[in-house]
Amino acid sequence: MVRKSRRASITRRLHRSFGVGAAVFVVFMVLSGLAINHSNRLGLDQQHASQPFVLDWYGLDGPENILSFTLGNNWLSFAGSQLYLNGDEVSTISNGVGAVFNGDMLVAAGSEEILLLDDAGSLIERQPWGPSGAGPIDSIGLFQNNFVMVKSMRQLWLADAEMLNWQLAEENTTPPVWSLPTPTPEALQKAITQQYRGDSLSLERLLLDFHSGHIFGPIGVLVYDLLALAVGFLAISGLVLWLRGRRNGKTNGKSLRPGR
To answer: Region 162-178: what's the mean pLDDT?
Structure first.
């Protein structure tokens, strides 16, 4: 009888001790699980982490190089495969080579495509580059101030005013004013770097990593496993205590009945 009492006492103490730590874990798992289930509605997949210490923890580095061009009062910058207007991401483009402003549109050139944007950075059209006989774009410039011209494999290609058709320029054509990069201001470089690093880490992924423990590496997964076992222990110990209490209640009830 004494042994049973001691076992019950130990079980209760363990149940309370594990319960305090596991309660916080369970609440977090419930809240984070609900947020993950509704991540699309909450927009977590479209929002990105921006805290430097979080990005450092994930080992996310900034772009190797930022190539910026001044277009009137605007700055158009290439960083990796991203395109930024005045420090705000506006589109994607591979192997950026230059950008010009023809008076109506911002024209950004990659080696294999050309992007047309308005003054606010909204994408008007994405044109794959590929006139017959043309190779990758090497550079882009303005001819007679408002006609876009590109160089490809030492050949000059001239676009019409609507940027719909391209034709080879004559050999004696006056070269355009080529687009040349301008040193990126420090504030602009900082803004682009912060966005670039955060673009690969959405709040949804961050929450998933917290929910699974992967954000803390193998140790975090192990701790989460132990906490999960603690929750399982609570369920089992709670059931044991309930069954014991129920059995003791019946026993006490029988002992109180008068004999016949």
So the answer is: 88
